[in-house]
Amino acid sequence: MSQMDRTRERLIQIYRRKAKHYDVTARLSPVPGYPVRAQRLRAVQALDLRLGDTVVDVACGTGLNFPLIEKVIGPCGRIVGVDLTDAMLAQARRRIEANGWGNVSLVQADAADFDFPTAVDRILCTYALTQVPECAQVIAHGAASLSEGGRWVVLDLKVPANVPRWVMRVATSPVRPFASIDQWILRRPWDAIDAAMRRELVDVSWRELCFGTAFLSAGSPSSRAVEGGPQG
Predict the structure, then answer these.
(1) CATH classification at residue 180
(2) Helix, strand, coil shares, percent, the chain, to 5
């Protein structure tokens, strides 16, 4: 088994243990009082959703973003939720059934291997992409699938620069179970995400949130990319 496969298996096992209580623990992560819901709302607002849109929620987990998206796209829209872990998707399915949503489909897949549908209107990934070593590849594949006027939005955590140690602990605590903090910091996945967004998209925005412990980035496909269609 390769190192990549071992990393994926570790993530699956961790999220299987967390799945049942994830909705509760997510409200307390990375620390109690951290504005997770407010940041999720900002990310969904950055999608600039329209009635009837098709939205891919990458690493959707238990579907915490679904209600915010459904509120705008309505029953004529569509959500495709993608996640690596079966147990997280089982919780997402319960959420779908409890709300009676008939326009949400779930796919178990690694984000790096997911085959994006064509002509997607919006793509969202919250608090997950920095854990994917192939994050730039995910952004490129998603960008190639976007329709004209589409939006790719990423919300995630990062290490702030030149801040007190307690802020650093807040920024790194969510990834401690999943990866070596030292490696995560050295890899600086937020820089790779920023570079990929600017390379694959146009009109890219980047905002640091909560003292630099999180970022929100959004962009749209260029007209040339849309005309050329998905590149695989």
Answers:
(1) 3.40.50.150
(2) 45, 20, 30
